[in-house]
Design goal:
- With about 160 residues, the protein is mainly alpha-helical.
- It contains five helices and three strands; from the N terminus they run αβββαααα.
- It has a single domain, classed as Collagenase (Catalytic Domain), CATH 3.40.390.
- The chain has a three-stranded mixed β-sheet, sandwiched between helices.
- The longest helix is centred in the middle third of the chain and has 15 residues.
- Keywords: Metal-binding, Zinc.
- It comes from Dracunculus medinensis.
């Protein structure tokens, strides 16, 4: 996880030049190694760091195609508070069912398990809901969302339709 610390430090040093964000995903072609030297690691993120400025970071090894996207989603879900299926708060979700938060990416000829690789398990959904409920939250009007996304001179048009 040394790489995460380096990326977090880089983000803090250059944050004034970057757009505001809740999470940063860094893609790399470098082979990521786990702390024990395991080369099968393809992504890294801390659990429950989403919206924590400077902490909410993922590093994803670009292994090509859809697999990279799935690893990125997996790491973002860690940041949203979810652990791997089969451990910690996800003990009751079988990792062999191949949901997004399975500890390993694996293909499957089983149609259900293949389909699951694009879905969250009930455990992951529960943990994300718990994480989101723990945050203070902020209500942003449609008008303000538009201005944040597109600039202060944008807003919602009041449309009145009559038939």
């Amino acid at each position: 996880m040394k790489a995460i610390g380096l990326v977090q430090r880089w983000l803090l040093n250059y944050s004034q030049w970057l757009p505001k964000h809740n999470h940063a995903v860094f893609l790399t072609k470098y082979d990521l190694l786990a702390s024990k030297g395991d080369s099968s690691t393809q992504g890294m993120a801390y659990v429950g760091t989403m919206c924590h400025i400077g902490d909410s970071v993922s590093i994803v090894e670009d292994i090509g195609g859809m697999a990279t996207a799935i690893v990125a989603i997996h790491e973002i879900v860690h940041s949203l508070g979810a652990y791997h299926d089969g451990i910690n708060l996800s003990e009751d979700c079988d990792e062999r069912m191949n949901y997004i938060m399975a500890p390993l990416i694996s293909g499957s000829e089983d149609e259900q398990k293949f389909s699951n690789s694009f879905k969250l398990s009930k455990c992951s959904i529960r943990q994300i809901e718990m994480f989101l409920a723990s945050l203070p939250g902020e209500l942003i009007t449609k008008q303000r969302q538009c201005a944040i996304s597109f600039g202060s001179h944008y807003g919602i048009c009041a449309v009145s339709l009559t038939f």
